[in-house]
């Protein structure tokens, strides 16, 4: 799970503010990277928490020029007035297998994480306390089929 998420994170650094398609190359193999600055619940395959406000969202799609998907990564950050345990309970009931949230503790506090993997796809919900409510991050990503060499620009960008 962690490896799939980490492998997709190389795309996040290049986020733009408007839709963008950039032609890239991995060695001699061309790929197209499509960035969309907003994601819907359908894009994530997860409903937005009832009453939550969308703080941020985006989608990356990486495919060969022939349309073969290399990676799909969609994310949304929601702000809810409800506490983390209530939000976690809502998503636990919606996910296949009804997984129990895992509590992770770090320097920045405690977070509840629910994750499911089906085939080449991972869905993850991370919930942290934010004031009297919660910050909810929804993530949907595919197992990356990353080319063997780092991507490099091919020199063309298209704003879509």
Question: What are the main properties of this structure?
Answer:
about 160 residues, mainly beta, nine-stranded antiparallel sheet, 3 helices, about 15% helix, elongated, disordered N terminus
Write up what this structure looks like.
The longest helix is centred in the middle third of the chain and has 11 residues. It is built from three helices and nine strands. The chain has 160 residues and is mainly beta. The chain has a nine-stranded antiparallel beta sheet with strand order 5-6-7-8-4-3-2-1-9, with helices on both faces.
Q: Strands, helices and their partners?
A:
Layout: H1 2-8, E1 20-26, E2 29-36, H2 41-44, E3 53-63, E4 69-80, H3 84-94, E5 102-106, E6 109-118, E7 121-130, E8 133-142, E9 151-158
Antiparallel strand pairs: 1-2, 1-9, 2-3, 3-4, 4-8, 5-6, 6-7, 7-8
